[in-house]
Task: structure prediction
Amino acid sequence: MADITTSLKLDGNLKMQVGTFHVAVWGCQMNVYDADRIRDLMAASGYVEQVEPRGADVIILVTCAVRAKAEDKVFNQISAWRHQGVINERTIIALGGCVGAELADQILKLEPSIAIVFGPRTAHRLPHMISSYAATGDKIVDVQAEALEKFDALPEQGQRGPSAFVTIMEGCSNKCSYCIVPYTRGEEESRPEQDILDEIVTHVAHGVKEINLLGQNVNSYRGLTPDGNQSRFSNLLYEVAAIDGVERLRFTTSNPMEFTDDIIAAIHDLPVIADYIHIPVQSGSDRILKMMRRNYTSDDYRRLIDKIRKARPNIYISTDIIVGFPGETDEDFAETMRLVNDIKFDSGFSFIYSKRPGTPAAELPDPVSLEHKKQNLYVLQEKLEEYAVMYSQGMLGTRQRVLVEGISRKNEQELKARTSNNRVVILEGAPSLIGTMVDVDITKVMTHTLKGEIVR
Ligand code: SAH
Ligand code: SF4
Ligand code: F3S
Result:
């Protein structure tokens, strides 16, 4: 048991320092949001964050379970830290996020060095769990809570960079047959509209220029309005766009099945919405889409993209594709390639199907070899890359408005910025430009980034 002194409240506000913590995060933006809120919560409880894990009193792991490889990462990381002497028997390890909810008490057997298991819905109880473990030495597994409880219990968010994630709904009720998310994050529930707007106003007051609304399927947002009615995602978009200081608005993820005309109208009406939208298609084969329980056909998807492109001709579309879903034939894969060539995605994230325990697809026969799936994945990725490069080349010589996000990772003398269509631009400029929007001319196209010069 670690000899960590529990939080001591002296006069209601002043708290003694109770130790240091380090947060490691894997997975989607919803986890990044949760990890940031955990940082605020730990700081409010008197803990001090460490960028490096070595020597931290508490290590908090915010994990992803979407594919087996994602899940393995946390366990591999703990072993690596143990071998490197980064952690020792005094380190309090708290594993949270989607693996926490998925495996719950099994985790204590899988990895005995873990003291606390929490889930996406119980992150707000973490300081209490740590004090309790520190006082008693009894391990804790606490993964169940109401979907929105954490949002009410977390302190106001701290100051971050110029772009902020705002979770608008927790969970997912779609239950696509391959996906573990509905079982790790639970049934879908939307946050009340005013809570979201208040959070955005706080971000703007901290200098945030770009808001990214998050949910597993933001189109189905149905939060309550202040007068007790049910809102819609399109309403929320108009409300957020009306907040003074929000200069760029993004949202992810939009599911093709509930991409209604009111959302397309909002994209048309609101220039603050970025020229980039991520709409995962998963497959181009109607037979596979049906087995995935996606509730749309590849032609529905084609029509949807047509409508969005008519509403906003400059928009860049990215997608997710799963290769090798159980029973996927070469004909099914050819349909996916046909769709990719029809839509010409700006970018795509593609994955080999990973069997997730407890999901309906895990029961299906899966006769195709991993080798064959890998070959198909390679063919798909080559094509997606070809289109990504084509769009980047098309940006050469154009003028773009970018949000300067920070210092470039590769060269400290350069800045890193992002275009409306989500391309990273490297430029020369003073660090004082960080957090501002500037116009740049695109002067060079590199593999995954662009080079730009600030317009004087
Ligand atoms: N809510 C989003 C997706 C979230 S998960 C949506 O419905 O679009 C992110 C991506 O992981 C999915 O789009 C899918 O392509 C991939 N994915 C999910 N489960 C998977 C599995 N079992 N195997 C491989 N990829 C998977
Ligand atoms: Fe998973 Fe489907 Fe929900 Fe996306 S919409 S999180 S793929 S169940
Ligand atoms: Fe992973 Fe959970 Fe997000 S499984 S993709 S971290 S919702």
Q: What stands out?
A: The longest strand covers residues 399-407. The mean pLDDT is 94.
